[in-house]
Amino acid sequence: MPSPNALAEIGALIGDPGRANMLDALLDGRALTARELAECAGVAPQTASGHLAQLIDAGLVRMERQGRHRYHRLASAEVARLLEHVAQFVAGAGSTPRHSVRTGPRDLALRMARTCYDHFAGRLGVGIADALLARGYIELDADGGTVTDAGQDFLHGFGVAARLGKRPRRLFCRPCLDWSERRPHLAGALGIAIACRCFELEWVRRTSTRAVTITAAGQRGLRETFGISL
Amino acid sequence: MPSPNALAEIGALIGDPGRANMLDALLDGRALTARELAECAGVAPQTASGHLAQLIDAGLVRMERQGRHRYHRLASAEVARLLEHVAQFVAGAGSTPRHSVRTGPRDLALRMARTCYDHFAGRLGVGIADALLARGYIELDADGGTVTDAGQDFLHGFGVAARLGKRPRRLFCRPCLDWSERRPHLAGALGIAIACRCFELEWVRRTSTRAVTITAAGQRGLRETFGISL
DNA sequence: CGGACGCTACGGCCGCACCCGTAGCATGGG
DNA sequence: CCCATGCTACGGGTGCGGCCGTAGCGTCCG
């Protein structure tokens, strides 16, 4: 049975709160030990070990030994996409917002700017997408997006052209709906390239969590380059 | 808590075999009654009713009353995308195929040609994508795809141009990895338009399941138009 | 209007699997 | 060489949730 049981199998894997917390902790792309993940999930290390064995067996998580430590990370960016896709469906995205939209007071930093495995999300990610869209550098619709000729020039000036390859054909950028802003931001090759460049310029800096902080240089650079002021 | 519990909540919803079977039965886009879905899942009607209440509450399923019947269908095409996305991850797509790749002997018709909510999948869907790609009518990469100028002309001749709108800008087609063929096929606006046109021409016909049968006219048309012989 | 049908609401049963004890194995450092 | 560390392997306890009884309400036909 390929499809029906597969759905249930993967769903049950994601469905357990402990495993869900671990996967969420891994969403920034880092590699963590079983002990660290156990703390994230709020369970004992041996419990976490069992969960990790299941996740590895299903191909969602990859483990690599390094000395006497064993680091666990998501198996691929595709897994991160899947998890973000699932997280979008919290309580009927389209229809009636049943309970009043609960804005988590705790994670303001996460809502402001965070990494989504390999690109930016939150107000930072949405802001960049909006800026590129408003200036006619990209075009988006429900299925995907492309970089315009003017956008190619802009990206070249921003210093990400090399990272995107020199192929003359159009570049694709995958829109990725944001769970906090409920609006699309840029993933795919373009999203990766922009995020890498921002780290390179030290406009943003990683924290201990998925949230990223915007440096003073970043405030200035984002305003001058994209017209964003956070 | 927006993300972590959301992951677990939706995951647990998909994770139950009963609910997974119901969702799978709804993947072709039809609306079914609670009784029919109960039979699909192999549970009693009142059990199915409880499951459906949960799915509706979470916004995955929509219910509409019609006389004394209550029809249930997926809330949106986006839900169908999610379920297909989840189903792709059966047993580590990328790495080692743990058990020998079990080809379901039962569902040969499904592997050959089926609907994926609003577009074609299986060998039919992959074959169409391959044909368009080989003839230079579309371009694909990991993040998305576009229709070329030659492709625009071809689609116009095939009779789907009107359905896609007359806007001069490029059309986007979302690649959708197939769980049986493990290769991309066409979803999005383009995939929908092609599928609709094939039904219109009576090249394919719906069956009682998600599988579709290819008519004699379809065999001929697919061969002449796309060079596909199934 | 009476009967049949379709569905939902409540209660108890039961089983799965999550969870954490302790024990045992591999790796690295002193 | 011995000890410390990190992890996995088994065992039993427990709680959540699926499953199906019966009961009750609304909707359509004769």
Distinctive features:
homodimer; 10 strands; 230 residues; Arc Repressor Mutant, subunit A; DNA-binding; two-stranded antiparallel sheet; 2 domains; globular; alpha+beta
Major sheet details of chain A: 2 strands, antiparallel
Count of β-strands of chain A: 10
Assign a percent range to the helix content of chain A. Answer: 40-55%
Inertia-based shape of chain A? globular
Mean pLDDT of chain A: 82
Please give the oligomerization state of what you see: homodimer
Tally of domains of chain A = 2
Evaluate the radius of gyration of chain A.
19 Å
Structural class of chain A: alpha+beta
Number of helices of chain A: 10
* Portion in beta strands of chain A: 5-15%
Order of helices and strands of chain A: HHHHEEHHEEHEEHEEHEEH
Question: How would you describe the overall organization of this protein?
Answer:
The structure is a homodimer of 230-residue chains. The first copy, chain A, is of the alpha+beta class and 230 residues long. Chain A folds into two domains: 3-79, Winged helix-like DNA-binding domain superfamily/Winged helix DNA-binding domain (Arc Repressor Mutant, subunit A); 108-226, no CATH class. Chain A has helices at residues 3-15, 17-25, 34-41, 45-57, 77-87, 108-112, 122-134, 149-158, 188-200, 216-226, and strands at residues 61-66, 69-74, 114-115, 120-121, 138-140, 145-147, 175-177, 184-186, 204-206, 212-214. In chain A, the strands form five sheets. A two-stranded antiparallel ribbon of chain A has the order 1-2. The first copy, chain A, is globular, with a radius of gyration of 19 Å. The termini of chain A are far apart. At the A-B interface, helix 1, helix 2, helix 5 and helix 9 of A face helix 1, helix 2, helix 5 and helix 10 of B. Chain B binds a DNA duplex (30 and 30 nucleotides) through residues 12, 16, 18, 33-35, 43-47, 49-51, 53, 65, 67-70.
